[in-house]
């Protein structure tokens, strides 16, 4: 190989390396938060979980919004704890900013969990509000003599009968027996439910149907739609305590600028980008360049 040929070869190889470095640079420049919050998640069962919700042990909190952390229960359902109660998240309507909850005491359609363990719920300091709140009173530690008026309100508690009766009463707040039930029961709590149509006016309310259906909450958090439409991933910056839209280049206030959106939509470009990232890894791993130089004898 003469001197001139060797020079041209070396120059073109350098150019080639330069090109790769440009591509590698592009590859490493993809915002890490964009990548981390890219994965859709869910528990074994239940709805798809995405912004503003996130699963505490599975995702980074910055992929969600403060106050929207969920856990997966041992049974594989997404759950949230509010005021000492565990609620199963049944359905999430991202368009409406509403979700359906039910107390996990009522998660089975055949038997109740320990009803007397339910605590009064408060949404104080939570980014949630009831869509349509009705209340059912749950009375426990009640006197054994059951009057005729109260018998239709009796419900089974699945507490194992440890602390007294394994039953109690359920009734809506307006029920005329409420005062007399208060006389014979030591403890009462209010459980939120949502009555549909004329359910409340019906005299024979099926309390268990209502309790097992649960209720809806409306949430207050930044609207993610614009960010998603611009191909970003919604998230949160704890330092500035603000909503963020994670884009391929960096995080933005509301949505991704058109140029970065284009990179994502242009699948061919995206493919090339990924290929060059793969290639960058290959270079690192196998010292590909050194090998090539030897082969070429330069
Ligand atoms: C999730 O579980 C952890 C540990 O048990 C607990 O500290 C946290 O409050 C739970 N979060 C929710 C949203 O229930
Ligand atoms: C969120 O924004 C989208 C479009 O910007 C709008 O259609 C939607 O109604 C908004 N959602 C809420 C709950 O405000
Ligand atoms: C319902 O929740 C209780 C308490 O969290 C749990 O022990 C039980 O296994 C759950 N049942 C179902 C069917 O998920
Ligand atoms: C049962 O209800 C009737 C009217 O519905 C009332 O007159 C009566 O006093 C009630 N009895 C008890 C023990 O509360
Ligand atoms: C639950 O709330 C109701 C109404 O505020 C109250 O009367 C009741 O004593 C509370 N129960 C407990 C166990 O705190």
UniProtKB/TrEMBL annotation:
KW Glycoprotein (keyword) present: yes
InterPro entries xrefs: WAK_assoc_C, WAK_GUB
Signal sequence residues: 1-29
UniProt KW keywords: Glycoprotein, Signal
Subcellular localization, as worded in the UniProt entry: Membrane
Catalysed reactions, semicolon-separated: L-threonyl-[protein] + ATP = O-phospho-L-threonyl-[protein] + ADP + H(+); L-seryl-[protein] + ATP = O-phospho-L-seryl-[protein] + ADP + H(+)
Membrane-topology annotation of the record: Single-pass membrane protein
UniProt keyword Glycosyltransferase present: no
GO molecular function: polysaccharide binding; protein serine/threonine kinase activity
Any one GO cellular component localisation term in the record: membrane
Limits of the Wall-associated receptor kinase galacturonan-binding domain: 37-102
Protein name (Swiss-Prot/TrEMBL): non-specific serine/threonine protein kinase
Upper classification of the organism: Eukaryota, Viridiplantae, Streptophyta, Embryophyta, Tracheophyta
């Amino acid at each position: 190989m003469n001197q001139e040929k060797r020079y041209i070869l070396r120059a073109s190889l350098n150019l080639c390396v330069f090109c790769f470095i440009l591509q590698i640079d592009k590859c490493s420049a993809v915002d890490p938060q964009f990548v981390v919050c890219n994965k859709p998640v869910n528990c074994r069962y239940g709805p798809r979980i995405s912004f503003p919700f996130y699963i505490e042990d599975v995702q980074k909190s910055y992929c969600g919004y403060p106050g929207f952390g969920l856990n997966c229960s041992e049974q594989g359902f997404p759950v949230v704890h509010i005021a000492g109660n565990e609620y199963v998240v049944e359905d999430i309507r991202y368009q409406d900013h509403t979700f359906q909850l039910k107390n996990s005491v009522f998660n089975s359609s055949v038997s109740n969990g320990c009803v007397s363990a339910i605590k009064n719920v408060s949404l104080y300091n939570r980014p949630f509000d009831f869509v349509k709140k009705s209340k059912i009173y749950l009375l426990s530690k009640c006197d054994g003599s059951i009057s005729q008026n109260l018998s239709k309100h009796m419900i089974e508690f699945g507490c194992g009968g440890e602390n007294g009766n394994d039953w109690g009463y359920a009734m809506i707040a307006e029920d005329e027996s409420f005062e007399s039930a208060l006389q014979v029961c030591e403890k009462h709590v209010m459980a939120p439910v949502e009555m549909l149509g004329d359910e409340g006016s019906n005299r024979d309310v099926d309390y268990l149907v209502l309790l097992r259906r649960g209720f809806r909450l409306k949430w207050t958090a930044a609207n993610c739609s614009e960010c998603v439409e611009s191909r970003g991933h919604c998230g949160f910056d704890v330092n500035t305590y603000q909503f963020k839209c994670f884009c391929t280049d960096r995080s933005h206030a509301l949505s991704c600028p058109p140029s970065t959106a284009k990179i994502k939509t242009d699948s061919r470009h995206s493919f090339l980008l990924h290929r060059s990232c793969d290639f960058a890894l290959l270079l690192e791993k196998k010292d590909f360049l050194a090998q090539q130089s030897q082969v070429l004898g330069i």
